[in-house]
Amino acid sequence: MTSLSRYGWMRRSGTIYASVALILTALFSWSLPVVAVSSSFGKNSTTVSNLKQQEQTRWIEIDLSEQRLNAWEGKQLIYSYRISTGKASTPTPTGKFLIASKYRYNRMRGRDYDIPDVPYAMYFYKGYAIHGAYWHNKFGTPVSHGCVNLPVKDAGKLYKWANIGTLVVVHK
């Protein structure tokens, strides 16, 4: 093999390496949400690593029987909103969770729905989120596929107030 053909092979393989690097860069350069590192916190729950639960002052209470979301700072009620949670066939999970990720806008898809630009989505357990709902005005009635729906204006206030790691307590 001559030195010229050896360098031609290296030039082609260098192009291959550069192409692979560009593809990998493109795949991982899209904007990811801030996501919490999770581990088990109990049944149906997500936790943020290194979070000291006892020091948490802001928390969100979701009362399924009252169809109400209350946002607390310690023992002081900051916000109280009517909500729509999961129907009987697609219930909202109960338990203690932490907000794991937040999206200003997010597309939500399921077997029988595909909703673009869902505003103020805050995921607290797997695919379950607290978010604004522009497609209905049935707050106070369970109508969702398990998520916690708020009027968009209220969802925006809550989104700005809550942080990654904010405790979410869902009860009946």
* Rg value: 22 Å
> How many helices does DSSP assign?
2
| Secondary-structure class | alpha+beta
- Average pLDDT rating: 81
Largest sheet: 5 strands, mixed
State the strand order across the main sheet: 3-2-1-9-4
Helix-strand string: HEEEEEEEEHE
Distance between the termini: 77 Å
Number of strands: 9
Question: What can be said about this structure in brief?
Answer:
The protein has 172 residues and is an alpha+beta fold. The model is unreliable at 20-55 (pLDDT under 50). It has helices at 3-28, 152-161, and strands spanning 58-63, 68-73, 76-82, 95-98, 101-110, 113-125, 128-132, 148-150, 167-171.
Describe this structure in words.
The chain has about 170 residues and is of the alpha+beta class. About 20% of the residues lie in helices and about 35% in strands. The chain contains two helices and nine strands; from the N terminus they run H-E-E-E-E-E-E-E-E-H-E. It has helices spanning about 5-30, 150-160, and strands at about 60-65, 70-75, 75-80, 95-100, 100-110, 115-125, 130, 150, 165-170. A five-stranded mixed beta sheet has the order 3-2-1-9-4, with no helix packed on it. The chain has a four-stranded mixed beta sheet with strand order 5-6-7-8, with helices on one face. Strand 5 (about 100-110) and strand 6 (about 115-125) form a beta hairpin. It is globular, with a radius of gyration of 22 Å. The termini are far apart.
